[in-house]
Design a protein that fits this description.
By secondary structure, this protein is α+β, with helices and mostly antiparallel strands. The chain contains three helices and five strands. It has a single domain, classed as Ubiquitin-like (UB roll). The chain has a five-stranded mixed beta sheet with strand order 2-1-5-3-4. The radius of gyration is 12 Å and the shape is globular.
Length: 104
């Protein structure tokens, strides 16, 4: 599946993901996010803003993810941690924007 990613400079990239994978995996493979904690929901270096259409397809963020996001400064209504998003076939064509670094 194709995922359209706008990097921190606004440049558009297309990455390939597979259903069942974490969104973090193709983003990290393309060197678009740091994902310092490796997906353990503790560093927020995979913070993304999800397009509204795709955001509606996502399950609600869990308590652990909400706690991490709560302490971030550059939060938007569609903020999520890519490590906590499992890709589904319905997400083909989703667009995300990599959030600016917060200095963690």
């Amino acid at each position: 599946m194709k995922i359209y990613v706008y990097d921190r400079n606004g440049e558009k990239h297309t990455v390939e993901g597979a259903a069942g994978d974490s969104l973090m995996d193709p983003l990290r493979s393309a060197d678009l996010v740091d994902a310092t904690c490796g997906g353990s929901c503790s560093c927020a270096t995979c913070h993304v803003y999800v397009d509204e259409k795709s955001y509606a397809l996502l399950p609600t963020a869990g308590e652990e993810e909400n706690e991490v996001i709560e302490f971030m400064e550059k939060v938007e209504d569609t903020s999520r941690l890519a490590c906590q998003i499992k890709l589904t076939v319905e997400m083909d064509g989703m667009a995300v924007t990599v959030a600016q670094e917060e200095g963690f």
